[in-house]
């Protein structure tokens, strides 16, 4: 595994300094749906719960979170909105007004990897969705498979999947609630998509 650049460690330290300043802010836990305990903040992220302290971010087994998870959980806390929108209507990533610079990257690291990896393997994808804590999602959209995941307490993500046929390749569509942009910026929402894709495929993001 390649050695991480020193800038990554500096980013982590900077985020933790900012997160530490949130201690005592009574609205953070309630607004974000997280738990404040004696040993730090506890944040569910997909099927795992991480603990955020002034010194580290680690999972239930004590393993340090990878860089992407570190950034996501830190930003989730630091961007805590004062008056979050209640608009839960579902939109695609490209529908967010600030998403344009990241749409290509989102497609390449989130939706496209899911569609190509699980082409011809809908049953396998369904099993992986259940294993990751996904719940079948009722939708009027025509698709072979629909699952809802709780990425973060206030940020669900919906996966719609159609397998390939004689006319079209397999297609995976990820939907977010409109108010997701109140909790995470566009770069972080793209990271949510890439994390979902990697975990569905059974891969680790530790190399990122």
Can you tell me about this structure?
The structure is a single chain. With 208 residues, this protein is α+β, with helices and mostly antiparallel strands. The chain has six helices and nine strands, in the order H-H-E-E-E-E-H-E-H-H-E-E-E-E-H. A hairpin with an 8-residue loop joins strand 6 (135-136) and strand 7 (145-152).
Strand content: 15-25%
Task: Give average pLDDT, whole number.
Answer: 90
Structural class: alpha+beta
- Name the helix and strand elements from N-terminus to C-terminus, one letter apiece: HHEEEEHEHHEEEEH
Shape: globular
Quote the CATH topology of the largest domain: TATA-Binding Protein
Question: For the largest beta sheet, what order do the strands appear in spatially?
Answer: 5-9-8-7-6
Helix count? 6
Q: Can you tell me the residue ranges where pLDDT is under 50 for at least 5 consecutive residues?
A: 204-208
What is the rounded distance between the termini?
10 Å
Layout of helices and strands:
Layout: H1 6-20, H2 26-32, E1 35-37, E2 40-45, E3 48-52, E4 57-58, H3 67-78, E5 90-92, H4 103-117, H5 122-131, E6 135-136, E7 145-152, E8 155-162, E9 171-177, H6 186-201
Antiparallel strand pairs: 1-2, 2-3, 3-4, 5-9, 6-7, 7-8, 8-9
């Amino acid at each position: 595994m390649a050695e991480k650049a020193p800038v990554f460690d500096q980013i982590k330290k900077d985020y933790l300094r900012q997160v530490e300043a949130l201690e005592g802010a009574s609205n953070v836990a309630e607004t974000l749906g997280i738990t404040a305990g004696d040993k730090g903040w506890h944040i569910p992220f997909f099927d795992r719960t991480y603990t955020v302290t002034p010194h580290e971010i680690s999972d239930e087994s004590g393993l340090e979170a990878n860089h992407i998870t570190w950034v996501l959980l830190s930003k989730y806390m630091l961007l805590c909105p004062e008056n979050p929108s209640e608009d839960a209507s579902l939109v695609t990533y490209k529908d967010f007004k600030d998403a344009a610079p990241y749409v290509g990257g989102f497609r390449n690291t989130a939706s496209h990897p899911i569609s190509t990896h699980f082409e011809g393997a809908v049953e396998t994808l369904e099993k992986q969705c259940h294993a990751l804590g996904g719940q079948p999602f009722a939708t009027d959209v025509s698709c072979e498979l629909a699952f809802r995941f709780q990425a973060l307490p206030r940020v669900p993500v919906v996966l719609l999947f159609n397998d390939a046929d004689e006319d079209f390749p397999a297609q995976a569509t990820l939907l977010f609630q409109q108010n997701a942009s109140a909790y995470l910026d566009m770069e972080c929402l793209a990271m949510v998509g890439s994390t979902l894709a990697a975990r569905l495929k059974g891969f680790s993001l530790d190399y990122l």
